[in-house]
């Protein structure tokens, strides 16, 4: 099947590459000429584990191509994926200008039936807006608009795409349903469900899923904060409730809040949709408030430990991305902590396996970027852990002991056991657990 994918961010590039891997002819379209030229030359613009293997194989075999020309990209396509940004506006609503711009551009150049698929996370009613925009310049016999939300986790997006828990498809067209069934057949051979519903329900499903997961994370962070007050251990509580099948084990790890491209903006957008519909979604407002505070949860502990004066204090920081296995720094807690610490006059040396260039592009040289984790902690007053990269889980504590000026760790991801830290003689602050001194 000939497929066009408009937009080559995390979702678009993974979508295009994975569909090429299942034998389709895919053309990815992007207005960024430099980005397209890099991809034509085999340079992947994002970091996503496993994507490079599929990307290189399918470009070499001619199934995955790139262009800046929309008309060229959609020529003879049976389906067109819209995988475009939907950034939050000032009022919290999802900005649809990129999607609607492409929808307007599609109308005059459609010459045969095609299924136009909203892959981006979009508010309820977007499929209707896209349909109306295309229909201004094209017969409604030439297209159907389908909602097909993505459920990809950055860091494991390729696996999520190739082995989906489920595929959600919103359409009221039997013709479009037939095309979508054929398209996804290779990915659901093991019986993974393809769930058909109306377009509005599919759009709401994505927001509901992300809002629920964000709520689950935030609830555990609230429990962790209470644990610190009453002397309980959040890790024990996580194990105690996670074995309840009604709750499940995932998304119960306490830490310094969620970030990334999805949870923050999707929770915000759903709350805005609720407000516009005359419904007061109180849980979501609480989730946003708590998560905002949680990101800098360690700052009061840091200030207290150093007597309230951080001027001239040097901190090593491990992790800058919002989560491991990605270079995505959108809404990353590390950035919030950097901002607060710099405002207090502190100095920061940071290391992240993938995200340093992206951070440098945002905050420049206001901090020092190091070549490795141990260089980041040489002669520092304390280590701050912001991202749970695997290599930070089992460091060489003997080396750290020599490098650190003080054996002090502020761990925003609860990587180490309290008994271990006590035995090694560290002062250790974490989330929802006793402080080791």
TrEMBL record:
Stretches assigned to the UDP-glucose/GDP-mannose dehydrogenase C-terminal domain: 316-418
Functional pathway: Nucleotide-sugar biosynthesis; UDP-alpha-D-glucuronate biosynthesis; UDP-alpha-D-glucuronate from UDP-alpha-D-glucose: step 1/1
Keywords recorded for this protein, A-Z: NAD, Oxidoreductase
Pfam family, any one: UDPG_MGDP_dh_N
Enzyme Commission numbers on file: 1.1.1.22
Alphabetized SMART domains for the sequence: UDPG_MGDP_dh_C (SM00984)
UniProt cross-references to InterPro entries, sorted A to Z: 6-PGluconate_DH-like_C_sf, NAD(P)-bd_dom_sf, UDP-Glc/GDP-Man, UDP-Glc/GDP-Man_DH_C, UDP-Glc/GDP-Man_DH_C_sf, UDP-Glc/GDP-Man_DH_dimer, UDP-Glc/GDP-Man_DH_N, UDPglc_DH_bac
Enzyme class: oxidoreductase
SUPFAM superfamilies to which the protein is assigned, alphabetical: 6-phosphogluconate dehydrogenase C-terminal domain-like, NAD(P)-binding Rossmann-fold domains, UDP-glucose/GDP-mannose dehydrogenase C-terminal domain
Reaction(s) the record says it catalyses: UDP-alpha-D-glucose + 2 NAD(+) + H2O = UDP-alpha-D-glucuronate + 2 NADH + 3 H(+)
Gene Ontology molecular-function annotations: oxidoreductase activity
Assigned protein family: Belongs to the UDP-glucose/GDP-mannose dehydrogenase family.
Official protein name in the record: UDP-glucose 6-dehydrogenase
Native species: Arcicella aquatica
